[in-house]
Specification:
The complex is a heterodimer of chains A (261) and B (278). Chain A is of the alpha/beta class and 261 residues long. Chain A has twelve helices and eight strands. In chain A, helix 1 packs across helix 11 and helix 5 runs parallel beside helix 6. With 278 residues, chain B is an alpha/beta fold. In chain B, a hairpin with a 6-residue loop joins strand 3 and strand 4. The chains are: A alpha/beta (261), B alpha/beta (278).
Chain lengths: 261, 278
């Protein structure tokens, strides 16, 4: 069976593409799938940091494309999660070092080695974006409930639909208490504007800042509510119908004692 | 191609020589760290203090500065219209609703960054410098063509960085690309003092141990920034907001009106959290 090749994209930067790629990928791998994560952000790579493998990079995607190493040599296997590997981007090159065709070819080859290829797209809609979507067969669009992020997501969705890529949306960093007070757009507002199917809702949680800085995907912490949420997203990607959890605003005591909101 | 862009007063022989304005690019490498919010607020604060300021959105295809300024309904022409002689500069400049000496030059939304001619963009920034005290350029994320265009006309840069390892790494790469000819300053954005205290967030010192840049300011992560961005009201114009006050201090450090070191934002107290104040 051919692997699913999914690009994680957004238009706007900093909405959580890399964190989403790492955690959804890790959750799929925990569920027994063979997963390869590809960092398409040549020149500004970060997926290696989020997964804590930055010191183990020997070869990168550009060197694979230029024939200076084998594809398998450039893959870094995660030490904590079986079945999870990452193909890092080059840090000191720029995005034009790889063409769309070359990128698509690498993704197709990876598809022969695993069940899911997740491609972490760079911000923007320039060459790096065109590369990242070139080999994908479907897309996950990450957005936050902010006007600017939604406008950029809308632009990206237009480009994905032009390419005939099916897509679903993850609404990231929602703050239920701000939605309730009318200071933040709701998930329904976002999916209405984008007229796209919902794949997941992820609350804004300070835990993600810390785990990202430490290079440990939050799904490794089984106690974490975010781990449960990413696992649900993985199950939805597999095709299961999983109901969405209602996010409740933090209670009085949580606000006082500063529990994750 | 640029004869329309060159302002009329510059050609007038009797006009007193106006000192050239400063062209400052606001950049970061990583997206979503607050470049656009910083551009809007620093620009609004400079203008509110009496300077003439133009904000240039260099994010062709993914513009957002107009939304953050609440001016999206008033945009009629954009940078590419000016560069392609489809509109004059005066037709394309949008005047701010609140501070009239603050103007916006919007990016094209339905075009690509490759459509911008780098030399023409540099000449446009140059001509803006003869009309305004400050030209603030809102750079797109990444280090592709849009970045190259955004920095080309600027002789100063503000690097915006959040206390996250990924943002610091990207900022470090951008500082290298900015080169040695530009004056580069740092703003640390979205700091949460309580997380720093608990050891769950990098401190300003951690960030600057890597970047080693002169610090212009530290901005706290506060919900009122999201609210003001969604409303299109720069928080810098809100006299009661501590974040607004931090942006005004940054503007004063840029203009030279103040030289003190930036303060670490106050931690939100028990009562702030309890009563939801900012």
């Amino acid at each position: 069976m051919a692997a699913r090749r999914i690009v994680v994209t957004s238009g706007k930067g900093g909405v959580g593409k890399t964190t989403t790629t790492a955690n959804v990928g890790a959750a799929l791998a925990q569920r027994g799938h063979r997963v390869v994560l590809v960092d398409a952000d040549i020149g500004l790579r970060n997926l290696d940091l989020v997964l804590g493998v930055e010191k183990r990079i020997v070869f990168d995607l550009v060197e694979v494309v230029e024939g200076r190493c084998q594809l398998r040599q450039a893959l870094i296997k995660d030490k904590r999660i079986e079945n999870l590997a990452i193909l890092p981007a080059a840090q000191t090159r720029d995005k034009t070092a790889v063409s769309e065709l070359q990128f698509a070819d690498v993704v197709t080859q990876l598809g022969e080695l695993c069940d899911y290829v997740l491609i972490d797209c760079p911000a923007g809609i320039e060459h790096g974006f065109r590369n990242a979507i070139a080999g994908a067969t479907e897309a996950v669009v990450v957005t936050t409930p902010e006007v600017s992020a939604i406008r950029d997501a809308d632009r990206v969705i237009g480009k994905l639909r032009e390419r005939g890529l099916s897509l679903r949306v993850i609404v990231n960093r929602i703050r239920p208490e701000m939605v309730r007070s009318g200071d933040m757009l709701s998930v329904d507002d976002v999916t209405d504007i984008l007229s796209a199917e919902l794949l997941g809702i992820v609350p804004d949680d300070a835990e993600i800042i810390d785990t990202t800085n430490r290079g440990e995907p939050v799904v490794l912490n089984v106690e974490s509510r975010l781990a449960a949420i990413y696992t649900k997203i993985a199950r939805r990607l597999e095709g299961e119908v999983v109901p969405f959890t209602a996010l409740n605003p933090p209670g009085f005591f949580e606000r006082i004692f500063g529990k994750a909101g | 191609m640029l004869h329309d862009v060159i302002p009329q007063e510059a050609a007038a022989p009797d006009a007193p020589a106006k000192p050239r304005g400063r062209a400052i690019v606001v950049t970061s490498g990583k997206g979503g760290v607050g470049k656009t919010t910083t551009t809007a607020n620093v620009g609004a604060a400079l203008a509110a203090a009496g300077a003439s300021v133009v904000l240039v959105d260099a994010d062709v295809g993914l513009r957002n500065l107009d939304i953050v300024m609440g001016l999206e309904a008033r945009v009629r022409h954009h940078v590419l219209d000016v560069l392609e002689n489809k509109a004059t500069l005066d037709e394309a400049l949008v005047t701010d609703k609140r501070v009239p000496q603050l103007k916006l030059l919007a990016a094209a939304q339905t075009r690509e960054k490759d459509d911008v001619d780098t030399a023409a963009f540099r000449a446009l920034i140059d001509s803006l410098r003869s009309r305004f005290d400050y030209v603030l350029i809102d750079c797109p994320a990444g280090i592709e063509m849009g970045f190259a265009n955004a920095i080309v006309g600027a002789d100063e840069a503000i690097v915006v960085c959040t206390p996250e390892v990924s943002a610091v790494r990207d900022a470090d790469r951008v500082v290298g690309l900015l080169g040695d000819t530009r004056k580069v300053h740092l703003i640390v954005n979205r700091l949460r003092p309580e997380l720093v205290r608990k050891g769950k967030m990098l401190s300003v010192e951690d960030v600057n141990a890597i970047l080693r840049l002169p610090l212009l300011g530290i901005i706290a992560d506060a919900p009122d920034v999201i609210v003001s961005t969604n409303k299109g009201e720069p928080v810098a114009l809100d006299a009661a907001s501590p974040v607004g006050s931090a942006y005004r201090a940054i503007a004063e450090r840029i203009s030279g009106a103040r030289t003190d070191a930036p303060a670490i934002p106050r931690e939100r107290s028990f009562f702030d959290k309890l009563f939801g104040s900012r």
